Amino acid sequence: MAEKQSWGKLLTYKQASLPPFPGLLAALGPGVIFLALAQGSSELIWWPYIIAKYGLTFLFLLIPACLLQFPVVYEIGRYTMLTGESVFQGFIRLNRILAVLLWILMTLSFLWFEAFAAAGGTSLAALTDIPSGWSPRGQTLFWAYVSMLIFFAAIILSNVVYRLVEGFIWVVSVLTLVGLLWASAHPDVLKALPSFLKGLFIPQWPMPRPWDSSDATTLLTAITFAGLGGFWTLFYSYWTRDKGVGMAAHYMGRITGPVTGKPETIPDAGFTPSDDAGLAQLPKWKRFMVWDIGIGIGGNLLTTLMTCLLAYALLFPKGLLPQHYELAVVQSRFFEVSWGWIGRVLFLVVAAAFLSDTWLATVDAVSRIHTDCVYAFFPAARKIPVRSWYLIFLFILTAITSVTVLLHEPGPLILLSAVIGFIGTVIYSVALIFLNHVYLPRHLPAGARPRAPALESSI
Asked: Domain residues for 246?
């Protein structure tokens, strides 16, 4: 392999052949995790709240908010597909100070992600009424701790955490999609469909109730988290890397892989495609990314539209708002209308799974990013194996979230995370443009460079 020096003193790129594309069904997976994490972060909480409170006033923002995520996610995935390394390593190559700033913002943003376990706990508390006699807050916290403990143990015991996350989410995603389609077919819901479709493009005016200034952050959160959003979007790089997409197939081992075998070193040399027959595989990998990301964003948009339709048809007329320690309980009416008490139980189970598995996917990805950054910024840290650092951060994050979950109800915590994530998104989106269209093309063969090199030649 011919080695190329990067701008930085720490990292290098090595040229290697782009691996053969294994087929669409074999490669799919990161987009499904993206879909499920997006649903757990916004679609079961904030958009139904906005629709239930203000009707169709803000619905026209939903489709643009989701579709805006596509180019960002594609650029994140494209960097990993072409280099095999995480997007955070790319930020470090681009500018170490910038990478440190993003690391700090990301750390602050994820001090409160236990709120998703608490939100899932609202479902389990309503479903079981266990522990009996406890307040809703007490029951919610009890189930939040139980779910965190179960997922923490699953990570520790799993040989490859990515497979655990992907497999679990495939099941929940299909179940939720079928359930929402069934609930949306109810006659009461179908009656509201024409007005709802109109509201997708023409905002309802005047608003059905006066604007509450305290909902400004809530609306920002709904827009930021539509299609995932915030620092969660960067996780797509780590999922594609663990899946072995493109040049990531050259990495021998995973942070969360088996202890035996060749361990992964981070940061390692990134791999860029060599100018050989392997480049013939590049269009296939690019098409895969369009499909994979399309499933994540398109599926997320579809389920969000259905939850909003259900909120408009069933919650808005009655003034029912999903909030406080009943974030998921109010929405159980979605399924209860169609299936009675069985539907209510089903929705609470699905909501608990989606909201709680957000904690699972987040604690795994955030532990990876911290490990990534520690190895890059502190060379002495490389004396400790990668997997050990991952487990150290896993313990730390679990301990932190176990404490912060006691401080507030889940809603305000998720809102605060979204505000920090919005700031971070603006910064890293600009950085992605320079990384993929100015810096990276200098290390790629001509056949792998972006088709519009105007920005590169002008800087």
From this structure: 3-457
